[in-house]
Amino acid sequence: MRVLLVEDHQAIREMIADHLRERGFAVDAFERGEHALAGARVAPFDAVVLDLGLPDIDGMQLLMALRTVQPEVPAIIVTARDGVEERLRGLNSGADDYIVKPFNLLELEARLRAVLRRVGSRRETRYSLGGVAFDTVSREATVLGRPLDLTRREAALLEELLRVPGQVLTKDRLEDRLYAMEDAGSANALEAAVSRLRRKLAQAHAAVSIETKWGIGYRLIEEPSA
């Protein structure tokens, strides 16, 4: 899951970003609204977490602008503005949730997963192929019901491949989904993640394989029954 974080306070921004990354999210963190909007124009996000008191644009205006770029993306406002009118304004402007500072990081994470579940209820939240299954909310992968131990990058890679089984995903698309802008890996990072995931699937005797389309990308296919 990729999160767009907009917070002008450096310590809070880093605290939220570090926590979410540790919990398996890819996070693009911005101080200014204009930079966040530019980021949203070039990369898809699964959720937005934003402050209202930004140095260049009011957070409400930013939220409405983000809605024109990615209309369906869920958004959580995190702000020191605690008045009822402010909360109502935020929710009526398109926010899915509203958290007042100071807040607990675990609560923020729980609320983030909650809005993702609500969006997921209108979309698929579980993907499977050849005995391999992935839950997009719990971020858990299994092979024939047995847990498959994956890093967050490997889990994100498996999710993307399972979403469109048999379809070739380009390297550019996979890198956009697996890596935040400031967290871009080396030229071989994606290839290394594919290699590790292949090995783990093989060790778990999964009836799927990751096929390489040289110069293009990868696809997940089901192995024929023996």
Strand content: 15-25%
Number of domains: 2
How far apart the termini lie comes to 35 Å
Label the structural class: alpha/beta
Helix and strand sequence: EHEHEHEHEHEEEEHEHHEE
Major pleated sheet = 5 strands, parallel
CATH topology of the largest domain: Rossmann fold
Outline type: elongated
Instruction: Indicate the CATH architecture of the largest domain.
Output: 3-Layer(aba) Sandwich
Mean pLDDT: 86
Strand order of the largest sheet: 2-1-3-4-5
- The helix fraction, in percent, is 40-55%
**Radius of gyration, in angstroms, nearest whole number:** 19 Å
In CATH, the homologous superfamily of the largest domain goes by the name Response regulator
CATH top level label of the largest domain: Alpha Beta
Output the number of helix runs: 8
Low confidence ranges = none
Question: Count of DSSP E strands?
Answer: 12
Notes on the protein architecture:
There is one protein chain. This protein is α/β, with parallel strands linked by helices. It folds into two domains: 2-120, Response regulator (Rossmann fold, 3-Layer(aba) Sandwich); 126-222, Orthogonal Bundle (Arc Repressor Mutant, subunit A), CATH 1.10.10.10. Helices cover 42% and strands 23% of the residues. The chain contains eight helices and twelve strands. The chain has a five-stranded parallel beta sheet with strand order 2-1-3-4-5, with helices on both faces. Strands 6-7-8-9 form a four-stranded antiparallel beta sheet, with helices on one face. The longest helix is centred in the middle third of the chain and has 16 residues, at 105-120. The two termini are 35 Å apart. The model has no long low-confidence stretch (mean pLDDT 86).
